[in-house]
Amino acid sequence: MLTPGWSSDAITHQGHVRSENQDAYLSDDENQLWLVADGMGGGKGGALASRMLRQTFENICLEEELTQRVNQLEQLVFNANLKIYHYARESFCGDYMGTTLVLLNRWHNLGILIWAGDSRCYGQDATRLQCLTWDHNQATELMKLGQMSEQEMRQLPKSHAITRAVGLHPDLCLEFQLLDMANWRLFLLCSDGIYGEVSQALMFNCFAANGSMKHKTALLRDKVLQAGAHDNLTLICIYPDQFAKTAVVKHSLTQWNRQLEKLQLDYYLAGISRDTLVTQRQQLLSSIADNLSWNPTREMNSEQTQALCQVSELKRSKNDPVYLFFIATILIILFIFMTTIFIVTAAR
């Protein structure tokens, strides 16, 4: 089954309170690459940091193989991280500047989701809107480590302090996840200026309403502005040109993501070295790519699809009763003809 291409619509706004818009975004439908970066308002140069991160991904040529693609995307973020970090040290007398990141890139039937900080990715289907990322803050990380329950975390006062961002430190640990893109009707990448102002239910209702995607994104923007818009707000809505089934098995995808998260967490906690992380992750990604490559429902080009249809039609025809009757009739006629020739020859 062919996997459709995905298109996007985006909005960004300064809001009613901030003196400048420190958000940046990239909607590259050609490369099937989308990102939102939220410059850190408490640091100097937040707007510059988010723009520097966005510029790193402009006009790039993406690797074809899954492992190389993930390594490439990660390295691009690392390059931006060091560039922002050193720029701040040289230009701001040692003060910091930084930006969050949430990035989605389509690779065949999979979405590669990468993030750092509290900008989020949501997936929406016919019945729900689900947050697919988790915020990098102290409370959430304690919950991930099993030192706090999810209920206890929800009872804590809301904190905007994040533990990871691009440009804050020379070393950066990113978060990775693989998505079955055809399992969702659309994806939303957004800064906290969106979900911090309106509920998840309202976000769902905006995109479940009738109308074009441009109308729906504009509707959500208006709802955020009506709610006060205390921060910059940016959102990219990513949706398929047509819906199609995918080859990804949900159980397998869950297992892969658990392994990816554990590897990243072990590295973040200094449980494993960077070399070990890269080696084990490459082995996992290679296994995933191999697992998908033999699946007969994987993405195919038009020539492959036509060839597969021809083979399927041939197999179907050979099992058809009419086809079998025709073959049997031919064989009987040949048998009678050969028998007649044998009798005539023997009589002579």
TrEMBL record:
Domain of life of the native organism: Bacteria
Keyword annotations from UniProtKB, A to Z: Membrane, Transmembrane, Transmembrane helix
Transmembrane segments: 322-347
Keyword Transmembrane: yes
Database matches in SUPFAM superfamilies: PP2C-like
Domain PPM-type phosphatase: 7-240
Protein name: Serine/threonine-protein phosphatase
Originating organism: Thalassomonas viridans
